[in-house]
Amino acid sequence: MNQQKSFESERATLYIVATPIGNLSELTPRAKEILENADVIAAEDTRNTMKLLSHFQIDTRLIAHHKFNESASSKGIVSLLREGKSVAVVSDAGYPLISDPGSELVQEVIEAGYPVVPVSGSNAMLNALVASGLSPQPFLFYGFLPSNERQRIRELQTLKHYPMTLVFYEAPHRIEKMLNNCLEVLGDRPMCLARELTKKHEEFLRGTIQEVLPVAATRKGEMVVIIAGDEEKKAPDVTQAMPLIKEHIQSYVSEGMTTNEAIKRVARERGMSKNEIYKEYHGLN
């Protein structure tokens, strides 16, 4: 067991600092204080973070920590902590680790025995969810669906029968294809598209997928997509879905799972009966 008392430790600390997602006035006083007093700031993009620091006249040393150097950078940050230097981690905007690098770093720092302290602030996912008009709880945050259409459809199939509100991030150049796939797989559910959150052109498009789709294709900027969960909660039709289920099973088999392990995992992910999938897969029905 690892026990941490964040405000009682005198050890060098890794701070996970949320930064504004557009409106700079949303940087909290505590986040500003941490960024000013940390020995080092590890940034996803040092150029973007420099703009934030310049605005608040913060001159803390900057280093790069992004998905392309995460493994080496994590080890370097642990070394800094061992030297007694506290490090603040920031992403380009919002909360680090939420569809951004940092997970590997946090694990390594915890294993090395140093405190990891979150510093609250902006988060696009939560901003969009609470203003969407859809049920805010329970919800499932997925992040970015795969850019490959076949993989995207497969992932949506695994989410189809989840009763909780679904939350995605999406890029404007993929939003039309993504919503078309959602309409095809999930059906015409209530949804909200939130974009440019906290910025001058902040906008919420609320309606059904079919209503929002043609408008969404004309919009720009960072997007959060909120879609209602499965309210019917019908037992999935194994026979009808079997072609996609077989492909799903084979993808896990190709990764080294046995067929039975793959069937068990697919059944769990799709909310289906393992026995029914097994019978259908092996032609025993």
Automatic annotation (TrEMBL):
Sorted alphabetically, the Gene Ontology BP terms of this entry are:
methylation
Q: Which keywords does the record carry?
A: Cytoplasm, Methyltransferase, rRNA processing, S-adenosyl-L-methionine, Transferase
Q: Report if keyword Cytoplasm is assigned.
A: yes
InterPro entries given for it?
4pyrrol_Mease (IPR000878), 4pyrrol_Methylase_sf (IPR035996), 4pyrrole_Mease_sub1 (IPR014777), 4pyrrole_Mease_sub2 (IPR014776), rRNA_ssu_MeTfrase_I (IPR008189), SAM_MeTrfase_RsmI_CS (IPR018063)
Gene Ontology MF annotations? methyltransferase activity
User: What Pfam families would the database entry show?
Assistant: TP_methylase
Catalysed conversion reaction: cytidine(1402) in 16S rRNA + S-adenosyl-L-methionine = 2'-O-methylcytidine(1402) in 16S rRNA + S-adenosyl-L-homocysteine + H(+)
The subcellular localization recorded is: Cytoplasm
> What general EC class does the enzyme of this chain belong to?
transferase
Q: PROSITE patterns given for it?
A: RSMI (PS01296)
Entry keyword annotation includes Ubl conjugation:
no
Q: What does this protein do?
A: Catalyzes the 2'-O-methylation of the ribose of cytidine 1402 (C1402) in 16S rRNA.
Family, per the entry? Belongs to the methyltransferase superfamily. RsmI family.
Under NCBIfam families, the record lists: 16S rRNA (cytidine(1402)-2'-O)-methyltransferase (TIGR00096)
Protein name according to UniProt: Ribosomal RNA small subunit methyltransferase I
Highest lineage ranks of the organism?
Answer: Bacteria, Bacillati, Bacillota, Erysipelotrichia, Erysipelotrichales
